[in-house]
Specification:
Layout (H helix, E strand, L loop, with lengths): L2 H12 L2 H4 L7 H15 L1 H10 L9 H14 L6 H7 L5 H19 L12 H13 L5 H8 L2
Helix pairs in contact: 6-7
Length: 153
């Protein structure tokens, strides 16, 4: 049981009719957790620090999802891609996850070529070749509808 479920259960117990009569029975294994929750609720600074420090599960990028991410970043240009804009095409991801992956991928690309390359970094793939041709002709990013069309291929 995680902290969220414990707080939810505690809240439900405190709001129950039995709570008005002080008839709630606390199991011995829950008493320490309840004390921790009460201490956390009493100190808002400590509460925010504890909530922020609680590590979320590690997000795993699948190969297909990473490919979509690379298509979007290449279409927008790697130096100009922003997490908020990328999330418009990958709404199932949080901006924090996208920002972290963008930073990691940019750093990897920079380490290989000492700068983030123009969208020819994935020349083995037909989608990236189409993006490269577009960049060569227009010198601007693809439109939203063009990016969505590339993602559905």
């Amino acid at each position: 049981m995680n902290i969220y479920e414990l707080v939810q259960n505690l809240y439900q117990e405190l709001c129950s009719p039995e709570a008005a009569n002080d008839q709630i029975q606390v199991r011995s294994d829950d008493s320490q957790t309840i004390q921790q929750i009460q201490a956390m609720l009493a100190n808002p600074v400590q509460r925010s620090v504890q909530l922020q420090s609680r590590k979320q599960g590690c997000f795993r990028w699948t190969e297909a999802l990473h490919r979509k991410f690379c298509i979007i970043c290449t279409a927008l240009h790697w130096d100009q891609a922003r997490p908020k804009y990328i999330c418009r095409f990958l709404p199932e991801l949080s901006p924090d996850v996208v920002a972290s992956h963008l930073q990691k991928t940019r750093n990897e690309l920079r380490n290989v070529g000492q700068r983030v390359p123009v969208p020819t970094c994935f020349q083995h793939d037909a989608t990236f070749l189409r993006i490269s041709e577009y960049w060569a002709q227009h010198q601007s990013r693809l439109s939203d509808s063009e990016i969505k069309a590339l993602l559905t291929q």
